[in-house]
Amino acid sequence: MNVIETAIPGPLIIEPRIFGDDRGFFYESWNATAFKAAGLDLHFVQDNHSKSARGVLRGLHFQNPNPQGKLVRVTAGRVWDVAVDLRKSSPHFGKWVGLELSAANKRMFWVPEGFAHGFVALEDGTEFLYKCTATYDPSAEQSLMWNDPAVGIEWPLEGLEPQLSGKDAVGKTLDEIEAFA
């Protein structure tokens, strides 16, 4: 696999080795030994799977305390995926990185603890998978406002008004959240 660093230390783009022929393809989406050899000694405790219509925006979510690291990928459709650095001690606090994940490009994105995470579905029927390093803890969940001007994420909404959940519609600003040390 190929591991690509992003503009912010921590989040990583992972390109798996694809074996394909006229019958289709095969790749390992998770192999603890291979990831450890690449410097990612991860232990996952929960898998999540979501399906979204075009324009559904999920996030920007994080847990503090009990943070989750997330290894994410798309198995149908495509998304614009974003991680925001919420570590107050980081020189990149409040900065974001984003990339397109799709069933076609088969890329994965590692979003470590200390980051908010979210995505917008760019196609109907988009299916998104998460491997998480900690279980979901509703008492620790927070939502950073998806369009906080202090963060300035450039969402490729393609003329759409994003569809938000109730909790995401009332996300907090960077100044209001409980950031990490």
Short description:
The chain is mainly beta and 181 residues long. The protein contains 2 helices and 13 strands.
Characterise this structure.
- With about 180 residues, this protein is mainly beta.
- The protein has one domain (about 1-15, about 45-170): Sandwich (Jelly Rolls).
- Helix content is about 5%, strand content about 40%.
- The chain is built from two helices and 13 strands; from the N terminus they run ββββαβββββββββα.
- The chain has helices spanning about 30-35, 165-170; strands at about 1-5, 10-15, 20, 25, 45-50, 55-65, 70-75, 80-85, 95-100, 110, 115-120, 125-130, 140-145.
- The strands form three sheets. A six-stranded antiparallel β-sheet has the order 1-2-10-7-12-5, with no helix packed on it. A five-stranded antiparallel β-sheet has the order 9-8-11-6-13, with no helix packed on it. It has a two-stranded antiparallel sheet with strand order 3-4.
- β1 (about 1-5) and β2 (about 10-15) form a beta hairpin.
- The protein starts with a strand and ends in a 12-residue tail after the last helix.
- About 35% of the residues are buried.
- The mean pLDDT is about 95.
